[in-house]
């Protein structure tokens, strides 16, 4: 079964779901690439434990749709994804949210970072299969990459999904973002207490919470949140702290 022909009870076509939820539709070529991505991930998953999400409907919703929803605050794709901007996906795992964004924005420079070599090796094979020449990979820890001159404060946009507490995600992402740029933290549930601790963490890292958006996913009606942090001043040099500290002692 192809992803674009999934039978969805209440909505006639996948094209309509994209249109209604993101005010956008993929081209035929992008749909083809989504399908190839799906097949490559299912295939790779037979040998590598990459993701638990392999059923077509779940893959479409949790990997494709959710990845793209994060860069469409207020249901509009970022007007700030102009050609040439640099995007980093931290703790990309099997390539989410970064790979769908690479497919949709071929003129953005995308970097996919993960600490696990086997995941990055697998992503390298996907990039070559899908001819995604706009995307490169790094094996490493966000705590170390964030202290390297060639990465620190170099990215317009940082994305981070399912890599730890919101405060740890802020410490992994904000040091990599340029002043004026954004970090997007993808979350499931969200509480006022988390907002409070994230506000405090972001403040120490040179960022502010610009927007917290709650939305529901189109098939399973699951609640999701994206938190948009704006980098307003340079991150002090002591951040990110050494490997393991952001998760063990969140700011
Ligand atoms: N972002 C993907 C997603 O949402 O499907 C993968 C999430 S997976 C639960 C977390 C990933 O983050 C793993 O692949 C892990 O290797 C990576 N990771 C965890 N801590 C990291 C760090 N400090 N630096 C870089 N990668 C990290």
UniProtKB/TrEMBL annotation:
Lineage of origin: Bacteria, Bacillati, Cyanobacteriota, Cyanophyceae, Nostocales
HAMAP family xref list: 16SrRNA_methyltr_G
Entry's localization field: Cytoplasm
Chain ranges passing through the membrane: none
Alphabetically ordered keywords of this record: Cytoplasm, Methyltransferase, rRNA processing, S-adenosyl-L-methionine, Transferase
Lineage top rank: taxon: Bacteria
SUPFAM superfamilies on file: S-adenosyl-L-methionine-dependent methyltransferases (SSF53335)
NCBIfam families: rsmG_gidB
EC number in record: 2.1.1.-
Entry-linked Gene3D superfamilies: Vaccinia Virus protein VP39
Pfam families: GidB
Function of the protein: Specifically methylates the N7 position of a guanine in 16S rRNA.
Chief location bin: cytoplasm
Residues at which S-adenosyl-L-methionine binds: 91, 96, 114-116, 142-143, 161
UniProt-recorded name of the protein: Ribosomal RNA small subunit methyltransferase G
Family designation: Belongs to the methyltransferase superfamily. RNA methyltransferase RsmG family.
Organism: Anabaena lutea FACHB-196
């Amino acid at each position: 079964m192809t992803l674009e022909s999934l039978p969805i009870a209440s909505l006639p076509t996948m094209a309509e779901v994209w249109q209604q939820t993101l005010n956008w539709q993929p081209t035929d070529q992008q749909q083809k690439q989504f399908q190839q991505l799906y097949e490559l991930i299912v295939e790779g998953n037979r040998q590598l434990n990459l993701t638990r999400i392999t059923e077509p409907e779940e893959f479409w919703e949790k990997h494709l749709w959710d990845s793209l929803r994060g860069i469409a605050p207020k249901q509009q794709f970022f007007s700030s994804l102009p050609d040439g901007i640099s995007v980093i996906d931290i703790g990309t795992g099997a390539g989410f949210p970064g790979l769908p964004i690479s497919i949709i924005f071929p003129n953005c420079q995308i970097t996919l970072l993960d600490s696990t070599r086997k995941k990055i090796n697998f992503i390298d094979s996907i990039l070559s299969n899908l001819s995604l020449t706009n995307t490169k990979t790094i094996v490493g820890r966000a705590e170390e990459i964030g202290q390297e001159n060639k990465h620190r404060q170099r990215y317009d946009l940082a994305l981070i999904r399912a890599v730890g507490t919101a405060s740890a995600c802020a410490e992994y992402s904000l040091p990599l973002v340029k002043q004026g740029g954004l970090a997007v933290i993808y979350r499931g549930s969200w509480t006022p207490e988390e907002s409070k601790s994230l506000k405090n963490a972001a403040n120490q890292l040179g960022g502010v919470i610009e927007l917290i958006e709650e939305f529901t996913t189109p098939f399973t009606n699951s609640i999701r949140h994206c938190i948009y942090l704006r980098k307003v001043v340079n991150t002090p040099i002591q951040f990110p702290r050494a490997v393991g500290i952001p998760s063990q002692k969140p700011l």
